[in-house]
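Reopening: structure tokens for the adenosine-5'-triphosphate complex, inputs below.
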Amino acid sequence: MTIYVGVDDTDSKVGMCTTYIAIEVLKRLMKENLGIVSYPRLVRLNPNIPWKTRGNGAIALLIGTGSAREQIIGEINGKPIFIISDEEPCSNELVEDVFSTVCEVIEEFYISDDKNTNPGVVVTCIKPPSTFYWSTVRSVVKLESVMRWLESQKVLYKGWGNKRGLIGALAAISWSPKDKTYELLTYKNRNEWLKRPLYDKESVKMLDKVLRCSFDNYDYVEDCACIFPRALTPVLYGVRGDDPKELKLALKIVKTNLRPYAWLIFETNQGTDDHIVRVCIGKIRPRMSVLIEGIVSEKPKIIEGGHVIFKVQDDTGEIYCAAYEPTKGFRKIVLQLIPGDKVKIWGSVKEYPNTVNVEKIEVIELKRIIIKRPPLCPICKKRMTSAGKGKGFKCKRCGTRLPEDTAVIEEIPRKLKEGIYEVPPVARRHLSMPIKRIKMRERGLC
Ligand code: ATP
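Re-run output (same inputs, fresh job):
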């Protein structure tokens, strides 16, 4: 029997990472002959939640008591972490033991002096319905509705502070992975949590070449590695991809001055576009992530801060779309759009007035630019000029006149090509599906 453990909101902007709770919980559970029966889960939730710390991630651990060791999915201080077979029933005492172990770990590690850190833990033997996951990844969930459900069920739970972490904790254990990816996370020694690692860029480029099913390792335009967290956290680096076995190669390839104290492969919803809802523009509401299809209705312009904004319209309405400054070179693509271009846009809607923060854009059909020019003078071979509206053309040099229907019709070629474009890896949302992955799926490679 599986015990589902969900945890969220233990970190703050100045430290910790909720995924590290998994390391400390597993360390303690392994001593008690318990183990995980499936990959630990790192579940990203609605990226538009204003009270998130960074990437709105929660974790779920599926715990059991089987004896057969199946595969190694991590290591803590040299000790392997196995996925075990889930064969023995769990007593109520055991479930309570797991719950108190997780609570102890949270008490020890959560950032208790930050008002925005409000941990939550949920432990249950019955998997909650996946509707909790879908509403938490796609909309804003009220704590009261989560509390109502927790109270009505036979589950163990605890919240600290305003208890908001219970929302993410419940969502994490409700996830039934359909589409999924993996992330190998490595962790620093505790005395090095506040150290920024030095690393060899070439080793990260090598990693990117060798791991065929991995994504977002290196941003070649910005010339920087994307596997190292920007904030100072217990995480040394994280490598994402579709093949968990391949990810282990990172441990041999990536060169840093800090030696990982632990590593663990998580099953995740990163790179799946699970946050995206296909809607018509009239149905867009703040804090949704959407896929819309429409026509560019206002020319892109650069506004203060270097952001590029433009408008898109469909039969139900019109909305501003933005490629913000951190999306760097992606803005150059967006600036080439013109009114009349048919596009699909994936993006998140944060604030009122609603603006779609573009994550990907597909140019479905380019508007043709057709212009009418005066003809060349048949005598002087120079370009003629207009003789007035509807009055044809005249040559300034020799006075030759030609009628209006001698105008030359020309099509100006567009630099922009039809196709799909995305923000660079440095600006990627965790949940956003990279084009590399879209293409691999089309070819049945993941
Ligand atoms: P990190 O990714 O670094 O672990 P974080 O960005 O996940 O940090 P948290 O500290 O976990 O941020 O804060 C997010 C908070 O928002 C949590 O309390 C979580 O329960 C809550 N939350 C997550 N999704 C929703 C949602 N859809 N509606 C309401 N609250 C949510």
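The CA atoms of residues 179 and 272 lie 6 Å apart. The mean pLDDT is 95. Marking as resolved unless the reporter disagrees.
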